[in-house]
Structures are given as structure tokens and as C-alpha cells.
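Team,

Forwarding the record for the chain on the shared tracking sheet. I've put the sequence and predicted structure together so nobody has to dig through attachments.
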Amino acid sequence: MKLKPKLKFIVSPLALLIIASGCSANKPIITSQTEQIEISLSWWGNDVRNEYTIQAVEEFEKLHPNIKIICNYSEWSGYQARNNVRMVSDTEADVMLINYAWIQQYSPDGNGYYDINKLSEYIDLSNFFDESLKSGTQNGKLNAVPIALNTQSVYINKTIYDEYNLDVPNTWDDLFNSAKTMNGEHYPISMTSKSAWFYITAYAEQKTGKQFIDNEGNINFTSEDLEIMIDFYCKLINEKVMPQVEYFERLNIDDGTYAGSVSWLSDASNYCGNAVKKGFEIVVADYTAIDSSKSGEGWYSKPATMYAISKNTEYPEESAMLLDFLLNSNENAELQKIEKGIPISNSARSYLEENNMLEGLQYDAFLKMQEYEDKIISVSPYFENEDMINSFIESCNAVLYEKSSLSDSAKKLHQNLLSNN
């Protein structure tokens, strides 16, 4: 059901003139016209995302001609930097795509974003199960609604592995054995610094049996536990299992230089799509583990991306209508498909199912996540702290380049993690 906003009227200048002059023998005729309002929408993404989001906006404007949408979008790094300025200066968009970690960053008391619960007349929240809405709730206030669930996934170029008569790797040992066989001609796996943070934490959690950080931000690892992480990263680099994260080049996935990659479920097409187009067979591997019984342990899920409404918006009802359209409508589901992940919204996902649109690498990664949903847990909002990730990589490099001992680097890292949290 599409809800129309309350119409807002203004009195025309001609009507005011007639009323003021009293020059008509008849009763004054007051003419009125609908006022067009403007609300802003911001998001980040590549050209594909920009194109279909603009198309969705155009469809929404056709349904609601009295609402004009002002679009603001850019690639991730620029968006992230500008978002910080806008949130601090209260100039953020009325409706905005946000990262999960930003709820804790900008709304620790729940007042940093509009409470969407107050707009349930305009957005159908029954499409979302309670657990998913909990991820966007802060201090009892619904700050954001998740679009899809996300997890780090392992994508393997089976074509390259087949050339070496290697099976798709499922364990850490498999990766090191693959590196020996590939002998520096290809890297068995590759990833960015953030993916490495998730990936190596999974290894350490499997080794120690501890959860690195809890939902309150408490660090459970000792400096000795951090030694395991730093040492493992250095081993991955030294034995040519993966390139250093600073030298990661996404384009090397396209030509098979990287025979595998770790990235978000929602980024499957962005990272591996060109390799598929070039004829490589890309498959989703099990979550890397010490052995098959531990696959999925130490791995985390989180909302892929979320939509929030500005606490400063002058048009909360219209903003909620736009939000409902972007999350629940058939029109947007048709355009977006699974580019942002498999929709949590029941109505959007049902539309994709009915029209056979749930397929491809992202869907395969989603099915893998479902397969291990009993082991994969929700990530702490504190886990993706950029300062912590940077401190970890710096500590690894200090050992890698023999600037510090493993023990000293781990102790320093432990102090940094505690101070950043």
C-alpha cells in the first residue's frame, strides 16, 4: 500500500488580491495549488548502484509528483569523509545510506538519527523480523533499517586452482599448501586491510576459543592472543599465501593473479564480476577454518548497509515514504535486485523469488551464510573501529620489517586497542 503525504496548500497571490480588494460582488474565490517539497537522499556506490538508485528516485517521483528528491552520491571514501562533516554540522541528507558502525559512532544515546518507530504509519516495518531491526536499534530507538545481511565470504577462482590440480581450500593448511604448489605465480587468497582484520581474527578465535570483543566494546584478547594474530599475518605474507594488504589490487582478481579473495557478500559482483565475465569459474568456499568441524566459527555477520532518516529533517513523513519505497517496493526490487545483498524485506525478497532474480555469486554467498547461520554471530558495533584496524596492520608491519619483536608489538597493540575502545 502506497501512502500519500498530507497535502500542503499555499494561497495564490491572485486570491489574496481578490480578498484584500473586495472588488467582486460574489464571495471571494480562493484558489490553491499543491506545494512541491524537496527532500534529499545520499548514498555511496559504483556506477551501477548510482544508475539504478537514480532510476528508483524517478519512479518514486512519478508516484508522488509533489515530492522532489535531491540526490547526493559518491564513492565510498569520499562519502565517508563528507558524512562525518555533515553529521557534525547537522547538514546530513533527509534519507541516507549509512554503515552499521555509524550508529554507535553518531548515535550512542539513540538520538543521533530519527526514531523510525514513530513513522510506522508510513513505512511497513512488518516486512522485517525483530532480530534484524534490533541491529538498527539504539537505546530503544530505531535509528536505521538494514537492507541485507552481510558477512566476509571466501571467493575462489576454481579455474586457476584446477590448473594446479588443487581442490578448493577450506582450511588454513589448504591455503599454505596451495601457496607452495603455486610457487609465487599466483596468490591463493587476497584481501583488503578490513577483510584481513576479520579473517585473521577468525583464525585467532578458532585457536583460542575466545571472542575478540563483546557488544559492550570490551577486549577479551590478551597480548599473547594478539601475538597469534600478528604472527599469523606475517606467516601469510612470508609464505606468499596473500599479498600485503597495502599492495592489494582489485584488478588482479580479474586476470587470475589472485586465485582467491575475501570480501563482503554484498561485494561479490564488484570484486569478482569481471573475472566471471572473462570466463573464470568463481565459487564460494567454506569459511576457512582449522578443520571442517570449525567452519563458520569466528566469522561474523552484520547489516550490509542501512537506511536512516535525519533527526533534523523537516519532512519526516515524506522521508519515511521514500524509505519504504527503497526497502519494500516491487519497483525498487526490480531495479536493485541483489546488488546490495539479498533483501531482508519480505516483500522485496518475495518479488525477487517470484521473478527468478535470486541467482549469481552473491546469492551463492548468501546460501553459504545460511548454511552456517548457527555458528556465525552478529558482529559487535565496536569491531570495525578504523583505528584498531590500522593499529593491527602497523603492528604486523613492525614485525614483518623487523622493527620490533613479536612480543613488544603485541603488547603495544594491546595498549592501543584498549585506549581506542
